[in-house]
C-alpha cells in the first residue's frame, strides 16, 4: 500500500496594505489603519480591529493632510468621506495613548526599571532594549545614560508627568528602562508610529 505524501498546508495570503498617500507597502506595525463610521466619518483604528473596509496610511501628519486634500480616502473606500476638523489632533493623541498604554503593560509584566541608578544598571548589563528619557528631563542624566545605552533604542517623546501617569507613579519620572522582550517590541512599535506622525507635523509647519 502506497503512502500518500501530505502536502504542507498553504499559509493564508496576507492582505496587501498600501499607503493611500504614497502607495508604499505597509504592515500593521508600520502603518495606521482608518475606518469609516456608519455615517461616513473617517476615524483612526489604532488596533486595526474595527470591522469593514479599511484604508492605510504611513503615520505622518503631512501625509494625512495631503491624503485628505486629494480625496485619497474617498477613492480607497469608494464612498463619500467626511473628516472631523481635529482629525490630526485625534490621531496624535491616540498614538500617544497607545504608546503610553504599551509602556504601562511592560511595567505590569515586570519589564520596566525606573530611576537613574536602576536604569543605568539595566543598560550596563545589556538587558534593556529601550531607554525612555522624559522630554523635559535634564540633559546631564541623558548624557550619562547614553554612554552605557549600547544598542538600546532611545525614546524621548513624553514628559515626566506623562511617564509617571503611565507607570502609576506619584512623582515625576525622568528615566525608564524596558527589558528586551515582547513588551518592549510593542512599545517601540507604538513609539515609532508616534515619532513618524510628529515628524510629519513639523515638516508641515516649515
TrEMBL record:
Instruction: List the InterPro entries hit by this protein, alphabetically.
Output: Ribosomal_eL30-like_sf, YlxR, YlxR-like_sf, YlxR_dom
> Which superkingdom?
Bacteria
Q: Name one Pfam family in it.
A: YlxR
Residue ranges occupied by any YlxR domain in the UniProt entry: 17-92
Q: PANTHER family under this entry?
A: BLL0784 PROTEIN (PTHR34215), YLXR DOMAIN-CONTAINING PROTEIN (PTHR34215:SF1)
Please give the name of this protein.
YlxR domain-containing protein
> From which organism does this entry originate?
Hyphococcus luteus
Origin organism lineage: Bacteria, Pseudomonadati, Pseudomonadota, Alphaproteobacteria, Parvularculales
